[in-house]
Design goal:
Layout (H helix, E strand, L loop, with lengths): L1 H8 L1 H5 L1 H19 L10 E2 L5 H4 L1 E2 L3 H7 L2 H21 L1 H12 L3 H12 L6 H12 L5 H9 L12 H29 L3 H9 L4 H12 L1 H13 L7 H6 L5 H4 L2 H10 L4 H28 L7
Antiparallel strand pairs: 1-2
Helix pairs in contact: 5-18, 6-11, 6-17, 7-11, 8-11, 12-13, 14-18, 17-18
Length: 308
């Protein structure tokens, strides 16, 4: 009897061993490249010496954190990171939802496919290419926009898209929304496609027009997807990509474009201050975890679906 129970216990492993073997590949990848490098976080609490290594470096506790937090440039970078991510969240998060709904309402398959391709394309462009495009379009003197508006007499002087701090933020957010909104529609289109079409037919029978169907059927149907993605975006408020602010930014607007990623590159990597760069990275991760936990808890309080 015990032998039979033991045999039944491992029946699932014998039956599905191929699936578990496939699962082992990403599991091993995460162990080697995501969890094993976490042991290097100890550098944040050391006066790290590249030649002595972790074992030979002196332990200094929270000294690296105190030093970084007292730096004026770190305060500027932290404020810019939060502000730019907040602007991205406010203006960039709703756009994929709006686009997904608009694409879903298209009744011409060919036009829908062409529109999707054109909207997805910017996501696959390198930020180096996009940076060149931004310079050609928004340059203060030779940019397409300024040149066109001046010739048409709509403005009397050039608009400083890239040389004025507030205008630079506007350009930064605009370019980011354009680059990311098409790719974000994929998830929402998939969610909309999975909705029960009988709900739309019932709403139409009740006399609901298109806007009312979107408001009362489409949006409630994808609400759980919106909430989960919103929570994940809030969790990334402390982290920001290196490419966009570094390529679009310049020394004239340094106090507006300097973010944590560029600060780490300049103060940590180029100056070989690896311990301080690691301390900043650890600070980002802890605050990001704190933010995503708060967002998930608030979502649960309103009976919405969270990520755990």
């Amino acid at each position: 009897m015990q032998a039979r129970k033991k045999k039944d216990k491992f029946l699932w492993l014998k039956r599905d061993w191929r699936l578990y073997a496939m699962l082992a590949i990403p599991f091993i990848w995460y162990i080697l490249f995501c969890y094993k490098p976490m042991t290097g976080l100890i550098i944040a609490f050391q006066k790290y010496n590249l030649f002595k290594g972790i074992a030979g470096s002196k332990w200094v506790g929270l000294e690296n954190f105190r030093f970084v937090f007292k730096m004026r440039d770190f305060g500027i970078a932290l404020g810019n990171t939060l502000l730019l991510n907040f602007l991205d969240l406010v203006f960039g998060f709703p756009m994929p939802i709006i686009l997904a709904i608009m694409l879903n309402e298209m009744r011409t398959p060919r036009l829908k496919k062409v529109s999707q391709t054109l909207l997805y394309l910017p996501h696959f462009l390198s930020w180096v290419i996009i940076g060149g495009m931004v310079l050609e379009i928004f340059a203060p003197t030779s940019g397409v926009i300024n040149s066109t508006l001046l010739r048409m007499g709509f403005i009397s002087k050039n608009i400083p898209f890239l040389t004025d701090g507030h205008m630079w933020r506007f350009t930064y957010v605009l370019v980011g929304v354009w680059q990311n909104m098409g790719w974000g529609t994929i998830i929402y289109l998939a969610a909309i496609t999975g909705l029960d079409m009988n709900l739309f037919e019932a709403a139409q029978i009740d006399g609901a027009n298109k806007l009312q169907q979107i408001w009362h059927v489409t949006l409630p149907g994808i609400r759980s997807t919106i909430v989960v993605l919103l929570i994940m975006n809030i969790g990334r408020m402390m982290s920001i990509g290196f490419d966009r602010p570094y390529i679009i930014g310049n020394t004239i607007v340094k106090d507006y474009c300097d973010v944590i990623s560029t600060f780490v590159y300049r103060a940590g990597i180029t100056n070989s201050q690896f311990a301080r760069a690691t301390a900043i990275g650890l600070f980002q991760s802890v605050v990001g975890l704190f933010l995503i936990t708060i967002a998930n808890t608030v979502s649960r309080l309103f009976d919405e679906q969270g990520i755990w």
